[in-house]
Amino acid sequence: MSFIEQWLHDAVPALVGSEWRKGQQSFAVDNPATGETIARVADMGADDTRDAVAAAYNAGAAWRATPVKQRSALLRRWFELINEHTDDLARLMTLEQGKPLAEAKGEVTYGASFIEFFAEEAKRMAGETLPSHGADKRLLVLREPVGVVAAITPWNFPLAMITRKCAPALAAGCTVVIKPAEATPLTALAAAYLALEAGLPAGTINVVTASKPAAVGEVLTTDPRVRKVSFTGSTPVGKHLLAQCASTVKKTAMELGGNAPFIVFDDADVDAAVDGAIASKFRNAGQTCVCTNRFLVQDGIYDAFVSKLTERVNALKVGDGLAEGSIIGPLINQAAVDKVQRHVDDAQSKGARLMCGGKLHAAGERFYTPTVLADVTTEMAVADEETFGPVAPVFRFHRDEEAIQMANDTPFGLAAYFYATDYRRIWHTMEQLEYGMVGVNEGLISTELAPFGGVKESGLGREGSHHGLDEFTELKYVCVGGL
Ligand code: NAD
């Protein structure tokens, strides 16, 4: 992709309206596999952010007035362009984020799927008429776009977290200002470039890149022209942004952290459970908000599960995401490596058995060897904190109620998984889990067709499915009288 190659040799600008703005300052984007700087990107501040908000605000009236079939066609073209550039986007993602190339290609397909879905769903953004309380009155409900949307996104899914917000927002007639994570701004800029190529009008999509997010965040959460803040990231930052949004009473969506349990009951198919465990835990080197953080395994199946899981984890190939056959890439930064090591050391010091891994990998200082810990207990840090790395801690339980209690004993409530065959147990467990999403005999649950989101401190709102469009619309009740 020529524009990307050119960017990588030059300072990459941010996008404000129709202007690719270089700004006064820039910051480095590093390849986590090698530590090398792959590009420098414009470092924007509060004034640039206000300009981007103004561009989005000024583009809003024309965009919401654009006939829905035209909006839909433009989104469809964006979807096609992203798919056509799968190889380039995937390579860029691997370079700045580290995930193996095959996974990055998967993310391009997944990310694009939201654009395709919402290009169609836009046509179904219907209002309603209601029964009236007076013979001379008619009651209407209009569905209108909320207005300017700020999309603040994390580094772990540099494309999909953006399309999951921008596609429904644009479909509904909103305009957006994206603030991508400082580690992965390039994929966001490439996606926005392709949106303009697809014909989306200038100002409908803006990207503000920044090495210090607080100044940008403050404008996005307090400027009255921004009507919705859609955030994906950690729970502490989400709480901070929610508080900032209160001053102008913005609509918010918060896709925050998790502490996903993966329960394996005695009657589970152990091989299927291990397959699910590998998919749910080790994708993206364990840096996925819905990835399993805790395996809760019943007595009768415990030893078989631990031994089969260890065998499979030992075989996971660690290496640079661009190298053929790599399954586990680097962690995003040194702090991530330190946290993983702290969790492993803490568990071992409190009596956990190290089955494999437990140390840095020879591939480099950001690579961690996939790890299985057995005999893990609730006193250990892995019980409460999101590890966000390739570590599978296996807890033991005896009775079903104990597993449910352990699973729910957390302030988080994003995703949970369990493996069982008895249908009563399946229904009971599914109903008892206090989570926004549950995988039953399934370790991979994300799709644009279903509502993604959490309860408790994992967040507010849903992304994907027709519910995802509702998040970007307001209801306007109209009472027509005197008839
Ligand atoms: P993070 O909270 O550190 O950062 C997320 C985004 O917020 C980044 O763009 C960052 O620059 C920005 N940010 C940070 N401080 C800000 C401020 N004061 N004002 C405005 N913006 C600010 O999270 P991260 O480390 O990038 O991502 C990992 C976290 O995201 C994990 O906790 C993970 O579980 C969560 N996550 C959740 C989902 C979900 O859908 N629920 C999806 C992916 C990741």
Automatic annotation (TrEMBL):
UniProt GO BP: gamma-aminobutyric acid catabolic process
Active site feature: 255
UniProt KW Oxidoreductase keyword: yes
EC number: 1.2.1.-
Segments crossing the lipid bilayer: none
Keyword Calcium on entry: no
Top class in the EC scheme: oxidoreductase
CDD domains given in the database record: ALDH_F5_SSADH_GabD
Family: Belongs to the aldehyde dehydrogenase family.
Protein's name in the database: NAD-dependent succinate-semialdehyde dehydrogenase
Organism name: Vreelandella sp. SM1641
UniProt lineage: Bacteria, Pseudomonadati, Pseudomonadota, Gammaproteobacteria, Oceanospirillales
